[in-house]
Design a protein that fits this description.
- This protein is of the alpha/beta class.
- The protein has 2 domains: about 5-85, Ribosomal protein L30/S12 (60s Ribosomal Protein L30, Chain: A), CATH 3.30.1330.30; about 90-250, Alpha/beta knot (3-Layer(aba) Sandwich).
- It has 10 helices and 11 strands.
- The strands form 2 sheets. Strands 7-6-5-10-8-11-9 form a 7-stranded parallel beta sheet, with helices on both faces.
- β2 (about 25-35), α3 (about 45-55) and β3 (about 60) form a beta-alpha-beta unit.
- α2 packs parallel to α3 (about 45-55) and α6 (about 115-130) runs parallel beside α10 (about 235-250).
- The chain is elongated, with a radius of gyration of 20 Å.
- It starts with a helix and ends in a 5-residue tail after the last helix.
- The model is unreliable at about 1-5 (pLDDT under 50).
Length: about 260
């Protein structure tokens, strides 16, 4: 198994593992500190280990150096779990279900996000804002790994993450299904709080360095700008998506300003 393949089957930290348990994920093996055998002062860790064991996980006690070497996220909090591979959601199936229930979906599409912490943060934002799914391309995008799961604070277990072959084609397909497509731009767009976010909507967020590709920008129905009043003239992908997603959530729940 390559390092990338292992990362897709590894969770690090207490909250991501607890959320995985709550979501019914299968945990195969747990690695934790040898001191956890006898130290009862850390009741949170002891309880989590007991829950994993009750669900059938094999518990392996290792020293801190071993755990540090296994970790990829930089914050294992004394516990790492080998889990069943994450199953990406099927976007077409999801949209068909929403159509049957007469629900207008709210999607976030990520154009080649490369930073694991940005993807994790966006998943966390999506959960808080009631986004129905996050969509990423199969190529040139960060994979779902331990760092993403850690940054998402467990949201990866609750927000469907879909992978598509071609993001541009996906946008065109969504438009045919009645979606309004919103993109982000540094300048020249409409202020994000001056547009209507009702109905079927998809918010496209560009990559950290390049923003949204020109082809995708051409497919957007609206280009949104977040007014800035300081000296720094840009926001990272996660912050921008959070500002816009929560404005959309406010409107879609008919909450007055």
């Amino acid at each position: 198994m390559t390092r990338d393949e292992r990362e897709l089957c590894q969770l690090e930290g207490r909250n991501p593992i607890a959320e995985a348990l709550a979501a019914g994920r299968s945990i195969n093996r747990v690695y934790t500190l040898q001191s956890a055998r006898n130290v009862r002062s850390d009741t949170t860790l002891a309880r989590l280990i007991a829950d994993c064991k009750e669900r059938g996980a094999v518990i392996t006690y290792v020293n801190r150096a071993t755990l540090d070497a296994m970790a990829t996220s930089g914050a294992h909090q004394g516990i790492i779990a080998d889990i069943a591979p994450y199953e990406y959601a099927d976007l077409a199936d999801m949209l068909a279900q929403y159509e049957l229930s007469a629900t207008d979906p709210f999607l976030i599409l990520l154009d080649h996000i490369q930073d694991a912490h940005n993807l994790g943060s966006i998943l966390r934002i999506a959960d808080g804002a009631g986004v129905n799914a996050v969509v990423i391309p199969q190529r040139r995008s960060v994979m779902l790994n331990a760092a993403v799961a850690k940054a998402s604070a467990g949201a990866v277990e609750h927000v469907p993450l879909c992978r598509v072959i071609n993001l541009s084609k996906t946008v065109l397909d969504l438009k045919e299904q009645g979606f309004w497509i919103y993109g982000t731009t540094a300048e020249g767009g409409i202020a994000y709080d001056q547009v209507d976010f009702s109905g079927k909507i998809a918010l496209v967020i560009g990559s950290e360095g390049q923003g949204i590709s020109k082809k995708l920008l051409d497919h957007c129905d609206f280009l949104l700008t977040i007014p800035l009043y300081g000296k720094v003239n840009s926001l990272n992908a996660a912050v921008a998506s959070g500002i816009i997603a929560f404005e959309a959530a406010r409107q879609r729940r008919h909450i007055p300003r």
